[in-house]
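dumping this here before i forget
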Amino acid sequence: MRLILLSHLSIPNQKLGANSLLSQSVLFVIFTRIFQKAYQTMISIKQLKYALAVGRNLHFRKAAEECNISQSALSTALQEMEQQLGFAVFERNNKNVLITPLGAELLKKAQSINIQIEDIVKMKQTYGQPLSGPLSLGIIPTIAPYLLPILLPPLNDKYPKLELKIAEEQSQTLVEHVRTGDLDCGILALPFDCQGLLSFSFWEEDFYWVSHRDLAPPASQPTINAQSLESKNLMLLSEGHCLKDHALAACKLDNNAAHSLRATSLTTLIQLVRGKLGSTLVPEIGLSQLVDQSNELVKLPLSEPGPHRQLAFIIRPNYPNLSNIESLINVAKQSLEKSLRQK
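structure:
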């Protein structure tokens, strides 16, 4: 507003007369002081990134390590930012770091700014070769161990300049990290609530019932239905894993039904099956690693209508490098087709 008002102080040279040079000098000094003051109150992108790191970790030392700077440098930068803002973003004591109400609003806006800045930086890749720079990818635990050995070799061969950073997270955390820009994209299993994000399904698969050979039905039985599973001491993953929800939905089983044992990974469930403690359901993508290499285990396709789950990429609606996702999808489809369907 000051700049707008001061702009009306400009006077045509013909009306200044002998004092024109002096008047212009005065105006120059006024504008210089205004811009200096504006510059002094300007918040830097680095300061916002430091604040976001503290907000994530709620710990100054951990935030400093994440930002690759000293703790004192981070603290000084944030103190200067708070002085410029005129309010505290964090409450500090010897044990805890708390976010103030105004600080929470600032971090929310800072996160939005950070996403836009990163998208601007990534725009240059849009006009270059696909998958030729850094890309952060999150994958859920019931997909990552089984997809990565299939996906990474052809990805490395076809896109040697790709700098891939991979994070393994449960579905809800993965969605939130993609939404906030901490990850470029994610791979999870649908159906799952991805509100506010775009999803691109690239693979469909069914579940297989897995049991110890000594507890399995006759070898002549080609499939198994959901009704039969009620008497098979079915073991599922614990809460928080969408595979559990997909298995219950495929079998039309009640979430409140008593399942004798629950685990946090498919690997653990398979060990329990090998110990004759029950049976479980495994998605097709995990059979090669979990089941096929053991003579103790048998598998039967679940005969309920499928597909029982879909593998999908998720991105933000304004993600600038859609061509990268398209390239990833093509490699994933071809690799899965070759590995699982052309045996």
